[in-house]
Every structure is written in C-alpha cells, then in structure tokens.
C-alpha cells in the first residue's frame, strides 16, 4: 500500500502544480516533473484533460426549459 500511496502523492503533486499553469505549458511541465516515467505523465495528463472537460461543461449555460402548453 505504501507504493500506491507514494505514487498517488506524486500524481497529486504534479497535477496540482500543472493545473496552476496555462494550458499551453502543462504537458511540458508534466513530462519534465515525471522524470521519464511515462505512466506517471500519462496519468497526470489524463486527469488534467478530465479537469479541463469538467470546467468546459460547467461554463456552458444549461438549456432553457420550454414552458409546457397544457
């Protein structure tokens, strides 16, 4: 469990720091701070993409409800 915990701490640390950067700088930052660990970089980049998609979803206004004509 210790290895999983350490790995998750690495992911969280890089993810948090990368999320503070402009989107155009994130991939290079993640790759640099993953120190050649392709799995670690892929996991962080995947999470960053999910966060970006969630932000886009939340920024779009909801569809207006149509009044029923009962």
Low-pLDDT segments, ≥5 res: none
Q: Bin the helical content.
A: over 70%
Number of strands: 0
Note the beta-strand portion: under 5%
| Main sheet: strands, sense, barrel | none
The count of helical stretches stands at 3
Helix-strand sequence: HHH
Q: Could you tell me the mean pLDDT?
A: 86
By secondary-structure content and strand pairing, the structural class works out as mainly alpha
Give the overall shape: elongated
Summarize the structure.
The protein has 70 residues and is an all-alpha fold.
Features:
70 residues, mainly alpha, 3 helices, 73% helix, 0% strand, elongated
Task: Please tell me about this protein's structure.
73% of the residues lie in helices and 0% in strands. With 70 residues, it is an all-alpha fold. The protein has helices spanning 2-19, 23-33, 38-59.
Task: Annotate the secondary structure layout.
Layout (H helix, E strand, L loop, with lengths): L1 H18 L3 H11 L4 H22 L11
Helix pairs in contact: 1-2, 1-3, 2-3
């Amino acid at each position: 469990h210790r290895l999983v915990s350490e790995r998750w701490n690495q992911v969280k640390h890089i993810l948090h720091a990368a999320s503070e950067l402009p989107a155009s700088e994130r991939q290079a930052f993640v790759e640099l701070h993953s120190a050649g660990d392709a799995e670690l970089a892929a996991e962080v980049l995947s999470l960053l993409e999910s966060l970006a998609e969630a932000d886009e979803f939340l920024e779009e206004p909801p569809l207006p409800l149509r009044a029923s004509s009962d």
